[in-house]
Write a structure and sequence with these properties.
The protein is mostly helical. The protein has ten helices and twelve strands. Helix 3 crosses helix 7, helix 4 packs across helix 5 and helix 5 packs antiparallel against helix 7.
């Protein structure tokens, strides 16, 4: 019926199978297996080398593990700094957002009200919708839990690994956050700006917050450009500011605000026309600074937030989280050396990936993404339906993680 696949036992004095007489016996790590009598003929240096290998060698060690071990104190410091500064970052987001909104209402909204009825309706509706969505989705990102693994599982759930820090079962796509000190379901990353992790149940809120915040900053920059540009480039401002005056050119609209006239009596009144006016003292400096602050702050947020948002869009379309991008990259390199293909079993297709994240079931739930609506993603974050993929070379059905 064929040869037996059983291994033939042998003693230390025998020649191991598949090895010629006189050939050194190598262990799985490449070290020579020596007999008891051989150790007596070793030098002191060789004995110390054997002791060092027997104590410190680990077949699971690699370069990444060594680097992580070396930088562990640095990682610990960064984790604790992020943990304690998280509430400060949240307060900073709230303060900066409120300052932009207050300046827009005080300075730029009166200017918008002079642009005609259609522009007024558009800005009032679109601007307030953006503001509502930004506030709502930021609140939900901070308050909704990303999801943690349950303590009990049923028989139908397969738990592939155990967290070495929590010493508990860890479902697929779950990772341990060293800042939050807990495992997070389908963890994407830890965000200090929301003082928490982005995971399965709050990923939608975080994504839509980034989308509407980016659109809001672009909207503010476009709307305020006509006012910001003369203030930033006009030489007449610097000339008059050195003299203690601030001159608004005749082409610039004058907002509905209190101003000090350049007359002898320094009377105070409300200006509604667009004639050239002169503002003296601290009011001129405050008005000018607010215009520059509004535009420069929003313009500075557009680029980094746009990069983060673009990276998120690509990852979601591929069915990956930010952590899985690095894991899958290493897995691709490992399988490539073995001549094997790599397929992401959690990639259900671009449309299905987005539907599962946003909780879209029909047209109504799709339109909900434009409004401040609470909507849960598909699935529980614990069990995942693996997509069956086929190796084109061998036509074998495989599940590759």
């Amino acid at each position: 019926m064929g040869q037996s696949n059983q291994l033939t036992p042998y003693t230390d004095t025998d020649t191991p199978p598949h090895r010629h007489e006189g050939e050194p016996h190598l262990h799985g790590n490449g070290c020579k297996m020596m007999k008891h009598g051989d150790t007596q003929r070793l030098s002191l240096r060789e004995k110390l080398s054997v002791i060092r290998r027997s104590i410190f060698h680990n077949s699971f060690s690699n370069q990444s593990l060594v680097i992580d071990t070396i930088f562990e104190p640095l990682f610990w410091t960064v984790d604790h700094v992020v943990k304690y500064f998280g509430p400060i970052f949240v307060c900073l987001v709230i303060v900066l957002t409120c300052s932009v909104v207050a300046i827009f209402y005080a300075i730029f909204l009166p200017i918008i009200l002079r642009w005609g009825p259609l522009w007024i309706v558009f800005h009032l509706m679109f601007g307030h919708l953006l503001l509502t969505n930004i506030l709502f989705y930021y609140y939900k990102s901070c308050t909704v839990s990303p999801g943690v693994p349950p303590t009990q599982y049923n028989d139908r759930v397969s738990i592939p690994t155990v967290c070495r820090k929590c010493i508990a079962y860890k479902p697929a796509r779950t990772h341990h956050c060293s800042v939050c000190n807990t495992c997070v379901l389908k963890m994407d990353h830890h965000c200090p700006w929301i003082n928490g992790c982005v995971g399965h149940f709050n990923h939608r809120y975080f994504l839509l917050f980034c989308v509407y915040m980016w659109i809001g900053t672009v909207y503010v920059c476009v709307t305020t450009w006509s006012t910001f540009h003369p203030h930033y480039l006009s030489t007449s401002f610097y000339t008059n500011f050195q003299k203690g005056n601030f001159v608004f050119l005749g082409m610039l609209p004058v907002p509905n605000m209190y101003k000090i006239f350049g007359s002898a009596d320094d009377s105070v009144g409300v200006v509604m026309e667009t004639a050239p006016v002169v503002i003296r003292g601290s009011l001129s400096y405050l008005y000018h600074s607010c215009i520059l602050y509004e535009f420069i702050l929003c313009a500075a947020v557009i680029v980094p937030l746009g990069v983060l948002l673009g990276y998120q869009l690509v990852c979601i379309s591929r069915g990956e989280t930010c952590i899985e991008v690095h894991i899958n990259s290493k897995e691709k390199k490992r399988l490539k050396k073995l001549g094997l293909p790599f397929k992401n079993a959690y990639n259900y297709g671009c449309v299905n990936n987005w539907s599962r994240l946003l909780g879209v079931h029909d047209l109504t739930t799709l339109l909900y993404q434009l409004l401040p609506v609470t909507l849960a993603p598909m699935g529980d974050g614990v069990s995942w339906a693996l997509k069956r993929v086929t190796d084109k070379k061998t036509d074998n059905k495989i599940f590759t993680l």
